[in-house]
Design brief:
It contains twelve helices and 22 strands. By secondary structure, it is of the alpha+beta class. The radius of gyration is 22 Å and the shape is globular. Bound molecules: uridine-5'-diphosphate. The site of uridine-5'-diphosphate has 13 residues, from α6 and α7.
Length: 379
């Protein structure tokens, strides 16, 4: 009855469903949650403000094809994300850049550091903190130590439960030191949020007559792996299965559970029109939460009140919270490799997305990946 079954209605699953539906395939999408759009799901709250239920999601991309593809399903509200951090009682721009230098150091020291940075790196370059820490120059060493201690160390310990050296370098390199005066969090060409939100965008992507969606349904309620075969509604399924969930779960944790970090989201209503100057303020030190996001600053809304979100990272525990970020320990990598090898016994199954590929994908990377997978599998 169905040519393709897709597990998960997040961005990866939705884009693949739409692409295959357009080429006349019949698709069944199975989603365990009661809503689509995965962790980029959003909704209008009691204050009339569009909030991101699973934390702030800011779309940014340099991929023209991804931008154009998504533009078929949404209008955009152009929005360039700005983040500040509370450091020594001051609110300063993040990523750390020349504007931050003059806020945290006396002018003559800040000038000296700016010139030293420009002598060592090109204007517009991005330097990961762990790289800057290796610098031999005493001014840059001092700067690196300051930024490390005040911006990265405690935030990373809260976010990951480990110091920066014990997590993959690429993670802290997402927020580099920026050689220049650009205060934006991202430098990509296209930066915007869907005008009516991500849930509406994904709803539109999925609204094709060839796509049937089942919410509130676990894969194991309708299907199972038997030997190297897939059974669906108790019948052998010979089509393709696109799996965007956790790989350890698909294989009943036979090589152990893969570790993830989760985040407890605490939304608050503040009885004021505005709470902070920019959408997100990071609190690297002194608080249990990592950051506060005010959604009105992302999606403008007429409201006398404002909604803020405090994020409290914690370990993922099955049944208690949701998996957000893969934790790349050596042990986790080895286990993931074993699950990947196991997947080779099932040529019908393709694993795609942040959970199934155990990768720290951004939203645009996921859409790119889904478009690439479609190109690979379509014939
Ligand atoms: N990070 C940090 N301090 C900050 C911002 C980021 O230490 O003020 C580190 C932290 O380890 C974090 C990583 O950089 O997990 C990536 O940050 P990003 O804002 O990209 O995380 P996301 O928005 O994906 O949670």
């Amino acid at each position: 009855m169905f040519d393709i079954v897709i597990i998960g209605a997040g961005l990866a699953g939705a884009v693949l469903a739409e692409r295959f539906a357009q080429s006349n395939k019949k698709i069944l999408v199975i989603e365990r949650r009661q809503h689509i759009a995965g962790n980029c799901y959003d909704e209008v709250d009691g204050n009339g403000i569009l909030i991101h239920k699973y934390g702030p999601h800011l779309f940014h991309t340099d991929f023209v094809d991804v931008w154009e593809y998504l533009s078929n399903f949404t209008e955009w509200h152009v929005y360039h994300h700005k983040v500040r951090a509370m450091v020594d009682g001051q609110i300063v721009p993040i990523p750390f850049n020349f504007n931050t230098l003059v806020k945290v150091f006396p002018k003559n020291l800040a000038d000296r550091m700016e010139v030293t940075l420009l002598k060592n790196y090109g204007y517009g370059q991005k330097i990961p903190i762990l790289e800057l820490k290796k610098s031999a120059d005493p001014y840059l060493q001092f700067l690196a130590e300051y930024v490390y201690k005040n911006i990265f160390l405690h935030y990373t310990e809260k976010q990951w439960g480990k110091p920066p050296e014990q997590i993959e370098g690429a993670v802290t390199a997402r927020v580099p030191i920026f050689i220049g005066r650009d205060d934006r969090y991202f430098n990509d060409r296209f930066q915007a949020v869907p005008r009516h939100g991500y849930a509406k965008l994904v709803e539109k992507i999925l609204s094709h007559k060839n796509i049937k969606l089942m919410l509130n349904t676990n894969f194991d309620e309708v299907g199972e792996l038997r030997g190297d075969e897939i059974y669906l509604f108790n019948q052998k399924f010979t089509g393709r299965l696109i799996y965007t969930g956790q790989l350890d779960e698909l294989f009943s944790y036979k090589f152990g559970a893969l570790p993830y970090r989760s985040v407890e989201m605490k939304f608050e209503t503040v009885d004021a029109e505005s709470y902070q100057d920019v959408a997100t303020v990071n609190y690297p030190n002194n608080y249990d939460f990592t950051r506060i996001t005010e959604f009105k600053k992302i999606h403008p809304a007429q409201s006398k009140r404002t909604t803020i979100l405090k994020e409290y990272p914690q370990n993922y525990v099955k049944g208690k919270n949701d998996p957000y970020y893969p934790v790349f320990t050596d042990e986790a990598r080895i286990a993931y490799e074993k699950y990947s090898a196991e997947l080779k016994n099932f040529p019908q199954i393709k694993a795609v997305g942040r959970l199934a590929e155990y990768k720290y994908y951004d939203m645009d990377d996921i859409v790119k990946k889904a478009l690439d997978v479609f190109a690979e599998l379509k014939d």
